[in-house]
Amino acid sequence: MDQAEYEAITAEVLASAEAGDLTTCERLLIGQLARVRGDDTEQELRTLSNLAAIYGRAGRRVESLVLAERGVALARAAGNTYREARGLTGVCNGRHGLRIGADLGAELTRLRELMIEFPVRDNTLLLHVEVAFLEFVHAMQSGTLEAARIYIEHFHDLARRLDRDHALTDCVHIAGLAEIELLEGDPSKARDLLDELRQRNIAAPFHLPEVTVRRVDASVAAGALEDARREADAAFEALEGAPPIARAECIHFGGRLADVLAGPLDDVDAARRAYDLVAAA
Known about the structure:
By secondary structure, this protein is mainly alpha-helical. The chain has helices at residues 3-18, 22-36, 41-57, 61-78, 81-97, 105-115, 125-142, 145-159, 167-183, 187-200, 208-221, 225-240, 247-262, 268-280. Helix 11 (208-221) packs antiparallel against helix 12. The longest helix has 18 residues, at 61-78.
């Protein structure tokens, strides 16, 4: 496929994605991939990456992860270190998005090696944003909370430089800080941060299962059990109204909510309701 035709199709994919028409995006990208596979490695890698991103946006996390892994293998075979780095961020984000508890250490070690080649510039800024977030995730997984705080602040600083809506960036940043405060044993600070999220109303439906269940956790940790019960009602509303993209979040945070309801809040009926939501997801 000549470059002009490739870019025209890619522009059509972008326009469809901005309109929320992911079905058209999928159709265009699968057709594009069939034509470039084995013919132009750079075009194939770009298309794999774009299709993986569309599947991730649609909540089809397993397909997104498989495509990202395929992209990494192809990029390594071609010696394309930039596409390998992009593919590795997709693999790590895919595993984290599936909430499977996979250790991201090996992929991050390789990413750190690759990032030496790509200093922070306009055309590499998004890659650095993704790596900073993954470093935060890995630090949280390993319990190194001081490092996690540094990485989530670094993520926020880099992401604010991107020319786009900052609500998502701010939501991830504030929710991440709230979880750190909870783990460090300061639920009042966590509640203050989560109150800020509520007041600013910047948590998209995709994030509501996470932030509402964290409010329950923070209230329980602060000993405010009646507040926690009220927050649990809001968490149920978020879980029941979550879009398909948040299926993994409903499973993970719905399970957390059920455990709190069955334990500190001693509400077996509500816990059963939460487990039913998890099973449905």
